[in-house]
Amino acid sequence: MKKTRQVRRAQGTPVVETAISSHDRRRMIAEAAYFHAERRGFEGGSPEEDWYEAEREIDDLLAKYVLAERVQHPH
Question: What is the three-class DSSP state of 20?
């Protein structure tokens, strides 16, 4: 079983806790950032902005997942 940890947004704002590892979260963000760059044909933009946008998206996705889990399996 993976340890639960607190996920932080790009701005440092705490988000809900999730059971994924920091390695998995980072991998998900990296893949999403790559797809952002790919969508614009790897032209313009910046890797940092791609990363921050992907980080927000993944953290939002994880927060929704945790919320759904809590609704389905309340303590």
Answer: coil
Q: Which of 58, 66, 12, 8 is CA-nearest to residue 31?
A: 58
Tell me the whole-structure pTM to 2 decimals.
0.69
Contacts of 14 (CB under 8 A, 6+ apart): 6, 7, 8
Spell out the per-residue pLDDT of the chain, length 75, in tens.
Answer: 344 444 445 555 455 566 789 999 999 999 999 999 999 999 999 999 999 999 999 999 999 888 777 777 776
Segments making up each domain of the chain, as ranges: 5-72
